[in-house]
């Protein structure tokens, strides 16, 4: 049986390459400041030429095996031992020692008082929204640039997503633009924020830490307090990410994380609710266990509950993976440094830095290209070579079920979607010396 370790909360700050082309520069927007439409594209190289330059770097940095996935799990003897413990003892369902131990170890790692393990990150968000008091006809502020699993639970409560824009540096909600938007459309009556245009309550603000980059939580938490909004952090992608010495999830009343197979650690399927509020933790645990009352002769329930508890088998896998997290973070940081240094040798691309004052987990590395045409040519060329690159999620406000939902203008969301390409980021990928990929600056 593996022994769990207390995890270090310090890591080496990511180094900027000496040649800083494409690193941390202000990106010239191809969109008007407050318009959703593209209004122009800067001059840029022929797409196939730029794609070949990017692929040349990927060929040199990545192993020769094909295909190469975007983010693949890494397992070993510890995972086998803990999973076999469940099989040998017969404790494979929601009862069993590994569930409680996994929750305790998550709490210790994040320094957040309570963790409640769930079957996936979406179910964790669903419980967070219920506990935030979201009701039918409410609105929830949420970025459009996120996975659909962030928005779906809002609709399960017959509430409405209200889409807000992101910023280039953190990829998260832009607090300055959100503040201006709320000044224009919102008013507080008593202890409730209302949308003056739709006349519906705005109940919560959900902040997503996109690709593991911590959002500007100090500013966003202040804004949420001012407008009496419950602050929820969607940290599905951000286990192991820190801002100002605090782990993601330290600002919101409620936070959801994910342990899906493509996350930095996995329990096969799984998630967790994090909170520093003991009452919210108790209610989350109760609702996610079908709201069953304490054991008596009869099986009884005192509320509408959900069968959302994580099985012991998955928790055992998650515990083993958690012991790997410090090593995963080191490996992924080295890979990100290699990417950054290598892509600094070609023009017309920009590698996404971790935000200032943060230490992120480099869950998935992001490369920004001049426009959607360059993005699509690169995606096609990489796929032919067996290298899986991925565009950003289609912005949620463009999906058919959300066409008529309220939103602010979303220029940065559209630009990142048009220009962003996610790079292979598995922790077992080698980080070869980026100097080996050096070449004169080329278009």
- The CATH class of the largest domain turns out to be Alpha Beta
**Number of separate strands:** 16
| Helix/sheet category | alpha+beta
Distance between the termini: 54 Å
SSE string, helices as H and strands as E: HHHEHEHEHEEEHEEEEEHHEEEHEHE
CATH architecture of the largest domain: 3-Layer(aba) Sandwich
Low-confidence stretches: 1-42, 434-443
With helices defined by DSSP (H or I, 4 residues minimum), what is the helix count?
Answer: 11
Q: Judging from the principal axes of the Cα atoms, what is the shape?
A: globular
Main beta sheet strand tally, sense and closure: 9 strands, mixed
Please state the average pLDDT score: 90
The radius of gyration is: 22 Å
CATH fold annotation of the largest domain: Aspartate Aminotransferase, domain 2
Helix content: 25-40%
CATH homologous superfamily of the largest domain - what is it?
Type I PLP-dependent aspartate aminotransferase-like (Major domain)
Structural domain count: 2
Oligomerization state? single chain
Structural descriptors:
443 residues, alpha+beta, Aspartate Aminotransferase, domain 1, Aspartate Aminotransferase, domain 2, 2 domains, 9-stranded mixed beta sheet, 16 strands, 32% helix, disordered N terminus
Give structural notes.
With 443 residues, the chain is α+β, with helices and mostly antiparallel strands. It folds into 2 domains: 47-73 and 325-437, Aspartate Aminotransferase, domain 1 (Alpha-Beta Complex); 77-320, Aspartate Aminotransferase, domain 2 (3-Layer(aba) Sandwich). It contains 11 helices and 16 strands. Strands 1, 2, 3, 4, 5, 6, 7, 10 and 11 form a 9-stranded mixed sheet that branches. Helix 5 links the parallel strand 2 (139-143) and strand 3 (160-164). Helix 1 crosses helix 10 (372-384), helix 2 runs antiparallel to helix 9 (312-343) and helix 3 packs parallel to helix 9 (312-343). The termini are far apart. Mean pLDDT is 90; it is low at 1-42 and 434-443.
